[in-house]
Amino acid sequence: MDNVLKFLYLIGAINHSLTFLFNAMKNQLLPIFGLALCLAACGSDSGSEQATGESPAAAPVQANAPAAGGETSNQLRATIRLVLEGGEMAGTYEARCMDAGCSHGLAGENQFGLQYSEEGKGANELSSVQMIVPNVQGDTKAKEFMVTMSFGELFKGKSYTINTMSAGRGEKGSGTVEVTFQGKKATVKITGQTQQGEKVDLTVECMRIITPENMAQELGL
Question: Where is the stretch described as Disordered (predicted)?
């Protein structure tokens, strides 16, 4: 990313996270609202591939070509593994985020988040995962979180949401989240069920975490 794109992401990531949290607290989740703000960060450089399982909707596992110039270990910011049971998108999906990814404290004090989105995905491919976990102060296991998983073309594809952050006012689905830190890395595991009954098993391995303190360094500004 050149400096212009980095600056746009810096502004966009903050605005997106704040909007995402605001809508959650109002119980008006827009599943993929604001994803365009991080397309520059997670679009052309991200690698992902998907899906296995018995559902006819699940696409075969594919391998993406390496990024121009070759992939280096410090480019990988997060890996995502989603197992979805039930519904038309049942299957196992994997994604690699080479920019953006996990954050802690950008959407508010102690808010842990994930921003992953990727253009050009087929209808049966995972194209976005947006997540927020409140009140994360070290290792955390809780029932309050929000996650939206989207497939296919951004803004138009199929989405699944679990939102348990409404404190009894219109929750969508149920489940638990566990955040475990390993130095500057973290693992997030979500197990739950959507309001429509699809079972979700999501694991995010955060190789790097953007914070207000290290944002400039992480984005290379």
Answer: 49-72
Buried b / exposed e across 101-124, counting CB within 10 Å, b at 16+?
Answer: bbbbbbbeeebbbbbbbbeebeeb
d(CA 58, CA 139): 34
Hey, CA dihedral for 57, 150, 103, 3, is it positive or negative?
A: positive
pLDDT tens per residue, range 97-129: 987 899 999 888 999 999 999 988 999 999 999
Contact between 129 and 200 under an 8 Å Cβ cutoff? The reply is no
Residues 151-208: tens digit of each pLDDT: 999 888 999 999 998 655 667 999 999 999 999 999 999 999 999 999 999 999 999 9
Tokens standing for residue 169: 């006012």
Question: DSSP letters of 55-75?
Answer: -TTSPPP--PPPPTT---GGG
Whether the Cβ atoms of residue 136 and residue 112 lie closer than 8 Å to each other: yes
If you ran DSSP here, which 8-state letter would residue 153 be given? S
Structural domains counted in the chain: 1
**Partners of 193 in the β-ladder:** 174, 199
Q: For the CA atoms of the chain, what is the radius of gyration?
A: 16
